[in-house]
Amino acid sequence: MTPMNRGVPVTKAPMRVAVTGAAGQIGYSLLFRIASGAMLGEDQPVILQLLEITPALEALRGVAMELDDCAFPLLAGIVQTDDPNVAFKDADVALLVGAMPRKDGMERSDLLSANGGIFKPQGEALNAHAKRDVKVLVVGNPANTNALIAMSNAPDLDNGRFTAMTRLDHNRAISQLAEKTGTTVNDITNMTIWGNHSATQFPDLFHAKVEGQNAAELVNDEAWYADTYVPTVAQRGAAIIKARGLSSAASAANAAIDHIRSWHLGTPEGDWVSMGIPSDGSYG
User: Fold this and answer.
1) Range of the structural domain that residue 136 is part of
2) Active site includes 170?
3) Which residues, listed in sequence order, are joined to residue 46 by a DSSP beta bridge?
4) Is residue 280 classed exposed, middle or buried when 0-12, 13-18 and 19+ CB atoms within 10 A define those classes?
5) Annotated catalytic residue: which of 170, 197, 207, 264?
6) Directed axis angle between helix 250-265 and helix 25-36, to 10°?
7) CATH number for the domain including 223?
8) Tens digit of each residue's pLDDT (9 = 90 or more) over 201-255
9) How many domains does the chain have?
């Protein structure tokens, strides 16, 4: 008898999805959606390979218990470990979520040093153990720098296997534009985020479309664009921290799901999405 998931036959072999920082806020918001089929499709079984630091393994055990209790038809197995060599073994997808965030008084060199200690060994483990066509998404900030560190330590993997997340900014830009134009997010296509996930990013309305119409021409308000729209999108994370006392978690997890889903399943005809990719020197 063919197993089913919400009426969809499940006949594919499981894909292995590695998630670092799996017991953290973003990880907790992420894992259940991966197991439900939201990321790779409702006919794609998954084996979750969850990496945490040693002191967090007990918390990770609790997360795994909850995943078991959901009885997801697509969840074919769970690996819990503090060893990146185990977590990335034969991984088809790797979501690098765990990172050292910048704190008050921390110099950039301190941040780079701390994250180098995380992403260097993870890059080496991916290089040694992941599938050669693994899809790597770095979520942990500074995402672009951390992706570069991991990529630089995986010389046997094609650089194109490594990406950094700007999809959260992309989604924020779409949402703010929909609100301004009195439309829904479903009406907006061809959004682009230039730059990285930082205050210097640039959400592009000149190529975006609202119901097929050029977004910049439709809005026709340069002051709003420069003084309200761009800062709102770029500083949304800080606004969320101020409002709830914690950084974005569910929205970041959702963006990671969207990023990998678009990469794995493709985008609608004529549309595109935003992600940080290795530079060929043509931008910036």
Assistant:
1) 15-164
2) no
3) 15, 75
4) exposed
5) 197
6) 40
7) 3.90.110.10
8) 899 999 999 999 999 999 999 999 999 999 999 889 888 888 988 888 999 999 9
9) 2
